[in-house]
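hi support,

uploading two proteins for the ticket. first:
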Amino acid sequence: MTQWLNNIMLVCLILLSTCLNAQTRAVSSSTAHAKIAIKPKETQYLKLSAKLGCNISVIYLARNIKDKNNEPGYCGGLTYEVNDFVRVSALYTRFQPINIKPTWLDVKANTLESNLEIIARFPNKKTLLYPFFGLSYNTYKGYFTGESDYLNLREYYQVNSIVKNQWLGFNIGTGMEHNFGVVGLFIDYRMRVGKQEKAFNIMDVCYTGGVRIRMPYGQKAKSFFRLNDRFSWF
């Protein structure tokens, strides 16, 4: 009888040990799957970012009759992301002084614009395509000599005088951007439509390229700046 009870106890212990081992493996397996399923959090950035870049533009299409009429400039601005599909941008552009001989000398031009951008994201979520449209305030100032005046501008402006034109324009264009984290590269193409003396026309065709700088926040911002480590002696 005692031997029989001992055998039963031994079988029970073996079964109990097998069950515990199986449960341990199941828990370990589920934990491993859970670890695999957990993905690292994506870096969060502020909705506001900065843009810096360069331009190539004809400045004033009807007046810039040079053979090589692409003029350089530089620009800076801000971008605000309303949501994942829409953002608003503001951009200031200043062009290098140019001469459009023999009619115009020492021409200075600048543009302040604001655009609404519609964002289409590529599958990698880092490359963006964004058609845009908006308004611009344009300034053109130069010395009008009156020579070779094929536009008959003598009717509007005094010969050998400084002429300053300002107009409100409509922008339309498209751009592409690729982000590498904090820094992204972009290139834009745009046309500006405005009133030219008496009629509305295409005033400018412009290419813009540069960088967009985004600022992280939260834990990623702390690791990015590491201010506590660098300035702990304050």
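and the second one:
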Amino acid sequence: MGNNILQLLGMVVVFILVLAATYYATKWIARSGAIQSSSSNIKVIETFKIAPNKYVQIIQLGDRYYSIGVTKENITFLTALEEEQLDLQKPGAAVPDVSFREVMGKVVSRVKKKEDKK
């Protein structure tokens, strides 16, 4: 019985270590910008999913804007856009900066509330 408890505690410790390593690795990758290419002439401004594997995107090429349709098989030019037609917000303006700790705190509190109701 005591051996099983030690194995369970060991697995919990390993799980927490893996979770922490994943958290810090994700933060490092996000800060380094290794996933995104550093192009100043081509930017995806906005993407809207209209069906599985089908999107409408607004892209910026230089100082001009275009809308395109993107599917798994091809990309279709839809129309050129003027900057006045677009609502260009700063990236991240609509999404608040929330820390991982805050999100996990909310999840844990919801789980505790559900357990208390039982």
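thanks. also noticed: The two ends are 28 Å apart (CA to CA).
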